[in-house]
Every structure is written in C-alpha cells, then in structure tokens.
Amino acid sequence: MASGKDTLSDHDASGHLWSPFYGYLPTAWASMLFLGLFILTTSIHFVQAIRTRTWWLLWTVVLAGCGEIAGWAARTWSHYALLNDTPYLMQTVTLIVSPTPLIGALFLTFGRMSARLGQQYSRLSPRLYSRIFFTADIVALLVQSIGGGVAAASDDSKISQMGSNIMLGGIVFQLVSLTIFCVLLVEYLVRRLNDRPVGSTRRFSQNTLNDAVPFLSGPGAPLERPMIQLALGICISSVLLYIRAVYRTIELADGWHGKVIQTQYLFFIFDGVMVFLTMATLNIIHPGRLLSTEIVCGAIPLGSKLSV
Q1: Residue 31 has pLDDT above 90, yes or no
Q2: pLDDT tens-digit profile of 248-270?
Q3: pLDDT digit string, tens, across residues 110-120
C-alpha cells in the first residue's frame, strides 16, 4: 500500500476527480447506503440477541456488523478526503476482517442444529464443529489482521506486499475451512434427508421416501419447521459468504493496483451486498429464535455453553 504521498494528486491522468489509493472516486451515496443498512441490521441483531439471550451472537454477528459499520463509515470519509490514507487503511482492514466472526456464527449455529437434529448423521460432534471450525476462524482472523496491520503501517513497497500476502494467506485459509464446512453441511443434510446415519448401510424403498415430509425430512421423524428454516438460513448464508471469500481471494491475488481491486462495482456487489444479505438472512431466519426451545435426544439447550 506504499505510495509517495508528496506526489499524490486527487485527479487522474484524464483530469477526473479520484483517490490515488482506491484508483477511483469512492461513491459517497453508495457508501452511505451500505453504512445505513449495516447500522440497521446490526441494531436488529443486537436486540434479537438480547431478547433471545443468545450471547454468542453478540461477539460473532453483532461484532461483524460493528466492523462493517466502521469500514463503510471510513469509505464515506474517503470520498471527502481523497488524499488522506487513514480512512482508506481503515476500510481496507475492517472490511476484509469483519465477516470472519460472521462465519464463526454459522459454525456455532450448525453445531447446535446438528445436536438437535441428531448427531448420528454428522462426522463430527457439535463440540468438535465448534472447536475445529471456530478455531480455524480465529486463526484466519488473526492472520488477516496481522497482514492488514503490516500492509497498512509500512511505506516500503516490499513490506507492504508482504503484508498483502499474509492477508491473502488468511483469506485462502478461511476459504479452505469454509469449503470443508460446506461439504460437511451438505453431507449432513443429505444424510438427515435420507435417514442415513454415518456408518449405516440402511436403505429405504422409494415408497418410504415418497411418504417422507418434503425437503430435509427423512424417513425417520420429520423435521420441525424451525429446523427447516434454520438449515435454509445456514445454507444461504454459507453460499453468500463463500462467494465473497472467492472474490476477496481473487482481489488480493490480483494486487493492490490490479483491475479487480480498482473496480468499485465489483466491491459493492461481491463484498458489500454479500455480507449485508448474510446479516439480513440471519435477521429473518434468526438462530436465537429458531433454537429457542429445549433440545431433545441429547442435544444442547440454547442458553448452554458449548465449549470451544
């Protein structure tokens, strides 16, 4: 991120107003729109977490929302301070790192959901899901934060590039862990749909399958509607954050002065929109509300602590 500040200009070679840090003029109204949207969804999440007493959503989803608010506020600031690198560095680090706790919330939610629906369909116990994937999420967060700090603090191009590479490593690590999680999530839902516990060779006739409740309802006990909604919410959120992680990987791999990072609409679509839709999805399909009843069959009550 190094640049010669003494030679910076707020106009490009064609005479158009721009920020030399972004490679374009950050759009004020769009940044303000995302800022308002994230304030709204984060505020709702805060109230929902308090009302349902799901405290772990405060340090995952709400924390992610606060980071997004800071990042979009910094982008708004950048529009009015084109030659000031402080808001640019703020939004760079916060908007890369902030969705990480959000991904952690999906890991924790799925652990609780699998505990309720039956651990026999999962390759990992609910506690292992939390320990393995949430630990991976924390590692990704630390690596991205360290990389962002190194890139932001140095005016030396080599050190700045090293920080960028560290940040890219954190994003790639996060993408890999999210990929593994998605594979295990899909396998779990398919096994639950067909009532095929891990290690089981049970097979059912087509008539038995046809009699099952549609969508995620296996030949065994049908799923409750809240669990169907929760499974849908986890799937939608996982896809949205996966798309965002792929975009961020391509963006950082292309470099600070690459075409991808200097194309504003790509950032709006594949970062801002993806993260906001994830948070909005979890507002509507809220884990605290859907997991609000006591768990049966060896599962974990909503208010209990799931050790990580």
Answers
A1: yes
A2: 999 989 988 899 999 999 999 99
A3: 988 888 888 88
Give the span between the Cα atoms of 146 and 205, in whole angstroms. 54
Q: How many CB atoms lie within 10 A of CB 282?
A: 26
Contact (CB, 8 A) for 268 and 298: no
Q: Which residue has the tokens 């097979």?
A: 203
- Residue 13 binned pLDDT confidence (cut-offs 50, 70, 90): low
